[in-house]
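idk why but the lab printer keeps eating my pages so im just putting this in chat instead. protein + guanosine-5'-triphosphate:
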Amino acid sequence: MLDLAAASTESILHEVARDDLRPSRLEAEAAVRMLIRWAGDDPARVGLQDTPARVVRAYEEWFGGYWRDPVKILGRRFERSGYDDFILLRDIPVQSVCEHHMAAIQGVAHVAYLPGENVVGISKLARLVDAYARRLQIQERLTAEIADTLQHALQARGVGVVIRASHGCMTTRGVHAHGAAMVTRRLLGECAHEPYRSDILKALSASA
Ligand SMILES: Nc1nc2c(ncn2[C@@H]2O[C@H](COP(=O)(O)OP(=O)(O)OP(=O)(O)O)[C@@H](O)[C@H]2O)c(=O)[nH]1
Ligand SMILES: [Zn+2]
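predcted complex ->
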């Protein structure tokens, strides 16, 4: 498991991409035309004429996470109102892209935390997963980033994250291991220790 214990909070808190460093849309479309030629087809062919613009729009969705600030997503807090056990959101869809092949990673995340003083709206856990998933990732880092951000931003007493995903680069090419799925997890704070550890792992792993 990737250990991010030494990573500074700063590197986690400032992960929003910069507009001034971004190539233009026209440059991005030209790159797609180049890849079409590399694949062996003719980008001027009628059926492919609109493809570069479509691909660039699709990239805006698949990589939209670079333009979202995960900490801001958790900005609105509510009092936990006397509730002091863990909160768990299961089966959050994960749609990501592997940083080695730029192939799809698809699966689910289960996210749990033990609240400190505050809780967040439950949808924000799914938004947090999505903000980190829609970037070039390896599953280990995706898991660690979700867990660490939740822990630091919310000052949670503990956090647990489990992700189960299949990697297109393993199923559609290369080793062609159809059906293989990778499982990663990260437990922090009180969730890493009994009495919560066993409960959390049982709850997180039931469908992982
Ligand atoms: N640990 C980890 N590995 C990943 C992830 N996504 C893809 N990979 C792996 O990244 C590795 C890249 O290995 P390379 O040997 O450089 O690439 P390759 O020659 O295309 O490897 P093959 O996929 O085995 O054909 C492959 O083993 C992939 O299965 C991930 O999220 N985590
Ligand atoms: Zn890959």
